[in-house]
Structure formats: C-alpha cells, structure tokens
C-alpha cells in the first residue's frame, strides 16, 4: 500500500518536531527538507531520525529543482555526509532514505548510504513541464539496483498527467515515486496506488509557517481524513468530478464523507481537466466507476457515451457518467435535483397552472426548462442573447425574449416563479450583478437562484427585501448529488444521512 510522507519545511528542527508530533498519526514517513532550515540548524540534523521516531528522508533540495538551497554543491554534499555520519547499528537512529538527484554522482555518499541501510531515492524534478518518454527515464535513472526512482514533473495539461500515468503502468515492476505537480496533476497525489507510486508527499498547511514543498501538494489532514488515503488500495472503487477550472467544488467532501460513514471501499477525487478527450482516456486507465461532469464539459462529454437516459437525450447535457459493461452511460441529475428542490420549497407536487420566468438559456437552463415542461408549467425564457432563448424555447412551444426592460410587462404575466440560471451574481466570477435589475418585485413571486455561493445573490437579496420567498441552489446541489450516489453505487441514499445532508452538516 502507498505510504504518506509528511514534508517538514519549517526553519528549525524544534519546530519541525512540533509539527511532526501534531500530525504523526497521519504519516508513515517524514521528509526533512534541510534546504528549508536556517543555515545553523542544517549542521544539527544528525540526531533528527532518533528524535522523529519514524522513518525520515533526508532531502536538500536545490533552488533549480524547486527547493531553497542556493549554496554550492560542495556544501550540499557535505551536509548530506553529515546526515549519514556516525551510523548506528540501530537503524531507526539513521536516516531511512537519502534523496539524491539523478544528475548528482557522488559514489562515496552512495556507498555510505548502502553500507548503513539508508535507501537512496534517486530523484528527478522538472518544475516547468513533463518530459517526453518518461518510461525510458524511469528505467534509466537508477545507479544501483536498490534505489527508488522518484519523478516529480509539472503537469501543464491533462495530457501530461496521462503520460505519467502510462509511464507508471509500463514500469509496474519497479519501485518508484511518481508525482504530477500542479493543479492538473493533484489527483496523482491521492491515487498514488493507482499511479504505481509507493509514496505521496503532503504538507501540514494548518501550520502557518509550513509552506507547501511543491505546487499542488495536499494538506496531510485533507489527504488522510477527507480522501482516506490509507484505505485506498487497488480494489478501491474510484469516482470523481471533472471540469475546468474546478477550483472550488464541494462534491468530494460530500461523497467521501458518505463513503466513510457507510464504510464503502470507494474514494471520490477531483479531476481538473483541460481536455475532455484526455480526461476520458485517464478515466479508462484509472478504471473509474463513475464521474460527475461539470462546466464546461456537460455537452462535450456526450460523444463518449455508449448509452444515455431519456433526460440526457432531451436536455442535451450530461452531468453523470456511470461505467457499464458496454461502456459509459450518461445521466442528468441536475433536472431532478432542480425540480425536487423547488417543489419541496413550494410544497407542491408539480408546476401545473404555474407561470414561470427563466433567466438564462445555457446548459443549466436547459435542465430547468425540461423539468418545468415535464411538470406542467407555462414558461417565459429570457436571455441576454435573445436568439439563444428562442432556440431553447421553440421545441417546448414556450415564450422567449431578451433580458431587458422591454420584457417587464411579459414578466408580470409569468411571475408566479422566477428562476435565475446564469452565472451572474456568482462568487469569483467578477459578475456580482443582478441580471433582473430592471424588474421591480411585487413581493408575491417565488424566486430561485441556482447559485449557492454566495448564499444570497444580489437578485435574491433584492427579492427578499421586496417580500418574496427565496431559495438558493444549495439544496439542488445536494439533491443532484444524492441522485448521483444512487447511480454510482446502485444503492438507495442512506436514510439516516438525509437529515445531516439537509442541515448542511455534510
Ligand atoms: P451554464 O452551463 O452554467 O448554464 P452556459 O451554457 O455557458 O453555462 O450558459 C451561460 C448562461 O449565462 C447564458 O444564458 C449566458 O447568456 P448569453 O447566452 O447571452 O451569453 C448567461 N450569462 C452569463 N453571464 C451573464 C451576465 N452577466 N448577465 C446575464 N446573463 C449572463
């Protein structure tokens, strides 16, 4: 099983020991980053393994490799030798591993390490990108048979991650550590086992003076508690979410908490991807069982489906992939998530005799329109680009128009429910605007905004102060995730967890 290595990057040995003591229960191995220590402290590293009480990697990373060591090579080699000096018969008092870069050739150091049972990690770093022909690199790096090869290369794209994954598979027989650095490769750190990597490096970011040792590195608690790293084996079912940029998603916390509470041998991982084509290849290599799909791939994923539900067919958007023996099946849980949430809020069974205005005509609006039609509403679709609203409305014979004050009179005819489906008002988009600012609420409208961050968009705030009942998109998000859980696992959503989900505890 892959090990967790906690990187210690504090300025003093004492502080590193404090951090280690706080998080030791999560780690199997720790890496002393000597380059991060103050110069005087670097001279005192020899007793660290004994004080640490767990296997320690001795690493002095150069600045060119992403570390903080700027001195000469002579000094660096001397410091490594100090770390290995006065070897003890009780090996727990020696460094368990020594990290030596593949272009550093110091036979005396290698000999000393081998003699005293310190294993060499032969490392290669590329902070700029991912090299071609990684398999050949892995095979050629070892200077002697007992070395562990470590490759830490930056992924600038999903293809880079795919290449590292393939190289790991090709060299399945070899002990190695593979890391795809940066945002696109972050899941290589969670799925170390699946990448054929014997160790995953993480940090203690809750400690303000312990900076990440490498881009994309995860926090030790996140890796251990949220992703339950130590439970991930070759038989663990892997699920996840793909999208771009996929920076803030609450789905991993939701699914992993439920898998944990249910004792399910499964993990749910974020897969930020700059190409749906390359991601689908990764999904096959990693044998993913199910995938949540979000912006911008809900439509572009459709050609990869072997079969699809009627909803996907009619809506033209897919947010759920389920692996079947025949290939990927596509489903859309946004639609049921939306209607379940709004009907519960209104205490209704359907939308018959309801006249509804929808703002927006994008992917999210399509699922909403489909459900409103299925459940009997009369709808007006308004969009900044009126033509797009017209194209969405036509098959349903719904009304449509542009998003401006000329439509005020028509909104007044479709004002039982108003549903906002665009990204206007969402946190982080720079669009903290109210797309319906020209319309004065009477106070009788029921107003829903699919956005859940912030909890109250400018539109919801204004509607609420006019006396309207308002609903944000959080409940819809949870409901669509519950439907995904059923698709993914084939089991009903656990009843005893429903109330915890509703109150936002998960
Ligand atoms: P999604 O899948 O989230 O719906 P999308 O398919 O790209 O994303 O659609 C985005 C929708 O939000 C569109 O209706 C878009 O209007 P245009 O079709 O005119 O582009 C709408 N939208 C985005 N930003 C907006 C803004 N600031 N004001 C009004 N509408 C906006």
Condensed summary:
This protein is an alpha/beta fold and 506 residues long. It has 20 helices and 21 strands. It has a 9-stranded parallel beta sheet.
Helix-strand makeup class: alpha/beta
Quaternary state of this entry equals single chain
Number of strands: 21
End-to-end separation in angstroms reads 28 Å
Largest sheet: 9 strands, parallel
Spatial strand arrangement across the major sheet: 7-6-5-4-3-2-1-8-9
The number of helical runs is: 20
What amount of the residues lies in strands? 15-25%
State the shape: elongated
- Fraction in helix: 25-40%
Question: Unreliable runs, pLDDT <50, ≥5 residues?
Answer: none
How much is the radius of gyration in Å?
Answer: 27 Å
Q: Give the integer mean of the pLDDT values.
A: 95
Which ions and ligands are bound to the chains? 2'-monophosphoadenosine-5'-diphosphate
């Amino acid at each position: 099983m892959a090990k967790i290595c906690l990187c210690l990057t504090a300025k003093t040995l004492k502080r590193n020991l404090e951090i280690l003591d706080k998080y030791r229960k999560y780690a199997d191995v720790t890496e002393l980053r000597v380059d991060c220590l103050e110069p005087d402290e670097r001279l005192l590293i020899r007793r660290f393994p004994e004080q640490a009480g767990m296997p320690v990697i001795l690493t002095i990373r150069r600045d060119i490799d992403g570390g903080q060591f700027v001195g000469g090579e002579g000094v660096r080699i001397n410091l490594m030798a100090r770390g290995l000096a006065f070897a003890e018969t009780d090996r727990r008092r020696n460094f368990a591993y020594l990290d030596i870069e593949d272009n550093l050739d110091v036979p005396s150091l290698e000999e000393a390490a081998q003699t005293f049972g310190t294993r060499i990690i032969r490392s290669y770093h590329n902070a700029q990108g991912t090299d071609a022909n990684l398999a050949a690199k892995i095979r050629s790096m070892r200077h002697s048979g007992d070395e562990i090869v470590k490759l830490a290369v930056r992924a600038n794209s999903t293809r880079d991650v795919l290449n590292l994954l393939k190289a790991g598979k090709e060299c399945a027989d070899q002990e190695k550590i593979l890391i795809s650095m940066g945002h696109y490769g972050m899941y290589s750190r969670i799925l170390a086992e699946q990448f054929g990597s014997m160790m995953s490096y993480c940090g203690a970011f809750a400690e303000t003076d312990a900076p990440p040792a490498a881009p994309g590195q995860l926090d030790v608690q996140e890796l251990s508690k949220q992703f339950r790293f130590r439970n991930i084996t070759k038989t663990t079912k892997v699920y996840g979410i793909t999208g771009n940029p996929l920076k803030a998603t609450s789905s991993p916390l939701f699914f992993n908490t439920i898998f944990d509470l249910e004792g399910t041998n499964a993990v749910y991982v974020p897969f930020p991807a700059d190409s749906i084509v390359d991601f689908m290849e990764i999904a096959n290599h990693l044998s993913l069982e199910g995938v949540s799909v979000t912006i911008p791939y809900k439509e572009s994923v459709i050609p990869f489906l072997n079969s699809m539900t009627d909803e996907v067919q009619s809506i033209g958007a897919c947010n759920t992939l389920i692996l079947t023996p025949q290939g990927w099946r596509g489903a859309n849980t946004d639609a049921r998530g939306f209607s379940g949430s709004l009907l519960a809020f209104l205490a209704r069974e359907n939308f018959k005799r309801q006249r509804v205005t929808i703002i927006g005509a994008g992917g999210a609006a399509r699922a909403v329109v489909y459900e409103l039609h299925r459940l009997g509403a009369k709808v007006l679709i308004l969009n900044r680009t009126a033509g797009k609203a017209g194209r969405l409305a036509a098959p349903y014979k719904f009304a449509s128009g542009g998003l401006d004050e000329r439509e005020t009179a028509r909104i007044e005819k479709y004002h039982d429910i108003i549903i906002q489906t665009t990204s206007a008002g969402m946190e982080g988009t720079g669009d903290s605007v109210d797309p319906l600012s020209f319309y004065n609420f009477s106070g009788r409208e029921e107003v829903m905004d699919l956005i859940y961050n912030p909890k109250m968009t400018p539109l919801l705030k204004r509607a609420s102060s006019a006396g309207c009942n308002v609903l944000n998109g959080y409940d819809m998000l949870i409901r669509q995730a519950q439907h995904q859980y059923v698709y993914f696992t084939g089991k009903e959503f656990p009843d005893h967890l429903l109330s915890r989900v509703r109150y936002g505890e998960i």
